[in-house]
Specification:
The complex is a heterodimer. Chain A is of the alpha+beta class. Chain A has 16 helices and 19 strands. In chain A, strands 7, 8, 9, 11, 15, 16, 18 and 19 form an eight-stranded mixed β-sheet that branches. A seven-stranded mixed β-sheet of chain A has the order 1-2-3-4-5-13-12, sandwiched between helices. In chain A, strands 6-10 form a two-stranded antiparallel sheet. The longest helix of chain A has 36 residues, at 274-309. Chain B is globular, with a radius of gyration of 14 Å. The model of chain B has no long low-confidence stretch (mean pLDDT 94). The chains are: A alpha+beta, B alpha+beta.
Chain lengths: 474, 140
């Protein structure tokens, strides 16, 4: 029933399941497809294809795996006028994303002081469960964060104005409406600004190991042997609560709009409805919280580097959101259309000359940041025209989990893992031992295989490979 | 049947299955399961109570909302949960107390940061002669 379209695409026809209004399309090679078929991923891609008002196809990136409602690695675009928005289609960690900083220091220099550097990062950046943030806020101030995102953080001295130009949407979604964020969500967020969280969130010190596209790498300020820092975190409890709140609001409102979904986690409402607009305002506010969070953590990283290596700017290369819904213009059936693109574990991947790119990148395209799993490589890619044609300008977001946390934990102890990584020249600081083993490299698919499919399918192009030196984890 | 819970494996995240002779008992066990995912229960003493009142359109949603409430107490108020005592309940509403204590660094051994309780495959099942079984999945 599932049709292979060449070496990197699998089509899920509408006949796969009753109620599909569009086809599904999975980007994968034979090996990744085998992994994808082992859980409910295909079913979830088909379930998404039943949502009202979708355009194009229900898409899955090569790192796709089973999620809740949407598969992780899913992309779906809804017609702005007749389509729906789904809180589950963005996910609990609204604007979970990745930021890359480029340092002027060489790997050789940084390796000499990697232990004190990690100790300092681990001390200054709160990580793990139940930790309070670097910044305490009053309710009034929190509204300013939700209104202004990274701009607020820079105004408070956590960074420089240059940083803002190198963040998706400059680190501030203008569609924000802090009044649509519940008091409960604000209570959860108030003391969590400037925290990493746990799970797969991390700050990793890396070196540029290999360049694939020297021209784009030069534009991004990357050169071999250089130390870079990758930050992976999101909107913390505030975003989680926004999603929790609106899942209930949407389930209730669906009755009124006569919408039925095959999985409660897919609860959705018309984009143009009051509930839809409220959610999008709250989601944008949570996204702004996440942009501010990564900005503040950037400040912590810079301070740590300064204390050990002296002066030298860590420039923001880029900052991308990989759990978000964005209103964008895309060509659908030969016509330009305004659509709401849900990216659930997928990264925007716009090509050169796209609006909103920093001038420095306009001739090469948008950096697409792909974190690997702990101890493996990460990648910098660049967006392509092909992504605009096929995936609403989207690409993968990481390695994608292959094993359950439990299975990963059974196979290795924290001590073994730390020793194994140490032998590979990678130092680790973790808030929780079980957290470390659950995130062991074996728990994930091979990020290089994921990125190769993305490149071979043409929905992004490889620019640089980054390898880890040290990592702090929640 | 002795009430209890076990932690379930999910490719991306984690789940709880709990059981008891009544819905209230099974739900209390689900709360204990969630608490054990957040913090090592051996390090938590139930010295304080937080009153809790939840209603929902159906029993599955009630499970999600109840567990979300416990998560909220932990994440927003740093109240470390250990167990739930139900004082009154119906299919769609529930009152009771969450028993636990305020978070103290050094005392409580933290385990995982749970992001949220999902509606993915949430279920409340009555098995003749065996009691009530609850399943819920968490986003980690």
């Amino acid at each position: 029933m599932i049709r292979r379209l060449g070496p990197y695409r699998y089509l899920i026809p509408k006949s796969f399941m009753h109620g599909m209004t569009v086809e599904g399309l999975v980007f994968a090679d034979d090996v990744l497809m085998k992994a994808i078929e082992q859980d409910l991923t295909m079913q979830q891609i088909a379930n998404v294809a039943t949502l009202p008002g979708l355009v194009g196809r229900s898409l899955a990136m090569p790192d796709a795996h089973q999620g809740y409602g949407f598969a992780i690695g899913g992309v779906a675009a809804a017609d702005m006028e007749r389509g729906v928005v789904s809180a589950g289609g963005v996910g609990f960690d609204i604007n979970c994303g990745v930021r890359l900083l480029a340092s002027p220091f060489s790997a050789e220099d940084v390796r000499k002081k990697v232990d004190p550097l990690l100790d300092r990062l681990f001390r200054d950046i709160p990580c793990g469960a139940g930790k309070r943030g670097m910044v305490g806020l009053t309710v009034g101030e929190l509204d300013n964060v939700l209104e202004e995102g990274a701009h607020w953080a820079v105004r408070q001295g956590f960074g420089i104005s240059r940083d803002l130009g190198f963040i998706e949407e400059t680190g501030r979604l203008r569609s924000t409406d802090p009044s649509k964020v519940s008091d409960r969500a604000k209570q959860r967020g108030r003391e969590q600004l400037g925290t990493l969280g746990s799970g797969n969130h991390f700050v990793e010190v890396q070196q540029v190991a290999e360049l694939f596209d020297p021209v784009a790498a030069k534009a991004f300020g990357l050169c071999p042997g250089q130390v870079v820092v990758l930050i992976h975190t999101g909107s913390r409890g505030l975003g989680h609560q926004v999603c929790t709140d609106y899942l209930d609001i949407m389930q209730e409102a669906m009755k009124k709009y006569g919408i039925h979904v095959v999985d409660r986690q897919l609860a959705c409402v018309p984009i143009r409805s009051k509930e839809g607009q409220d959610y999008l305002g709250a989601m944008a506010a949570a996204a702004n919280f996440a942009f501010a969070n990564r900005q503040i953590i950037t400040h912590g990283v810079r301070s740590a580097f300064k204390s050990l290596f002296g002066e030298g700017n860590l420039n923001v290369v880029y900052d991308v959101a990989h759990n978000i819904a964005k209103e964008e213009t895309h060509e659908v059936d030969g016509e330009l259309k305004r659509v709401l693109v849900h990216r659930k574990g997928a990264t925007r991947a716009f090509p050169k000359h796209s609006a909103g790119l920093p001038e420095e990148y306009s001739e090469v395209g948008q950096p697409v940041l792909i974190p690997g799993s702990m101890g493996t490589s990460s990648y910098v890619l660049v967006g392509t025209e092909k992504a605009m044609e096929e995936t609403f300008g989207s690409s993968c977001h990481g390695a994608g989990r292959a094993k359950s946390r439990h299975a990963a934990k059974k196979e290795t102890t924290a001590e073994e893992l730390i020793e194994r990584l140490n032998q590979k020249g990678i130092k680790v600081r973790g808030a929780s031992k079980s957290g470390l083993t659950e995130e062991s490299p074996e728990a994930y698919k091979d990020v290089s295989a994921v990125v190769d499919v993305v490149e071979n399918a043409g929905i992004a192009r490889k620019v640089a490979k980054l390898i880890p030196i040290g990592v702090i984890k929640g | 049947m002795e009430p209890g819970y076990r932690i379930l494996d999910h490719p991306a995240d984690i789940g709880i299955e709990s059981w008891g002779s009544t819905f209230a008992e099974a739900l209390s066990m689900a709360v204990s399961g969630l608490a054990s995912i957040l913090v090592d229960p051996a390090t938590v003493e139930p010295t304080e109570q937080k009153f809790i009142s939840v209603s929902a359109p159906d029993s599955e949603a009630l499970v999600v909302r109840m567990l979300s409430e416990v998560l909220f107490l932990f994440d927003a108020q740093l109240f470390v949960p250990k167990s739930l005592t139900v004082t009154s309940d119906s299919v769609t509403s529930l009152q009771g107390t969450v028993n636990g204590e305020p978070l103290r660094e050094g005392k409580h051994r933290m385990r995982m940061d749970v992001k949220a309780v999902t509606y993915h495959q949430v279920s409340v099942r009555r098995q003749a002669g065996a009691g009530i079984f609850i399943t819920a999945y968490l986003d980690i």
